[in-house]
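Reviewer 2 asked us to include a model.

Predict the structure of this chain.
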Amino acid sequence: MQSLLSTYAQFEAQLPFVLTVAIIALGILLFVRETFAVDVTALVIMTAFIVTGVLAPEEGFAGFTNPATTTVGCMFVLSYGLFRSGVLDPLIRVLIRLGRWHFPAALVALLAFATVCSAFINDTAVVALLMPAALRLAERSGVAPSKVLMPLSFAALLGGACTLIGTSTNVLVSGIAEKQGYAPFGMFEFSRAALWITLVGTLYMLTIGFMLLPSRRTGSSVPASSSSYVAWVRIEAGSADVGRTIDQSLLRREFEAQVLRLRRGDGTRVKEPDAATKLAAGDELTVVL
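Predicted model (structure tokens):
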């Protein structure tokens, strides 16, 4: 009887560990198989930890009240606002014009721009914002898109590590440190080390990395040109394209965009917009870049 009780006590002591490993393994399986959406899977894992008693309810929900979580959410709001406002569009047009003159200089400028932007907004939004410009740059320079997109991705990741808000990981680490009684990290406390890492990484991508990257010009992995990139565009009041025809617009002259659909601000649709169709404030266009 004593032996049975001892065995049960050992099993009871090991049960939280076994449950933790099992739940984590289940979570990894769900993430890999993409059975549910990522956020649903995360909630299922959290619920499993609470229901099995591995975590107390207040521990399971602690992440929602963590200041780091709120900060990360605000970062996404800021990134989305910059993405939709078009405030960075003039700089993107400058990059495309520079690419017509000198591709290496344009690539350096593109990576520098991505690095600086990702230090203050979400790196995913930076890549999404600059991807059309990168594809257009590759097309006009006769370079495989893979040799531009991969450096762009790495530049955004490296730049995000330079500041506290550049990546959610830094914010979470600062929050954990503060919770443990240490002083939180400052805005640019990561910069001294991260800037050197970013500089070395960028130089590598521009030299050795550029030579090692595959030249994928066809196939399903990467589009051969930016003409396969479909985008949704809204003509805001005060835009330079208001009152211009499609053929005269910056969309056509700067990006060589082809307008597929046009919806007026009042909801009416132009079935077959042509080069002579005039644009107005509030127009919503589906274009191929």
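The mean pLDDT is 81. Residues 52 and 181 are 30 Å apart (CA to CA). We have added this to the supplementary material.
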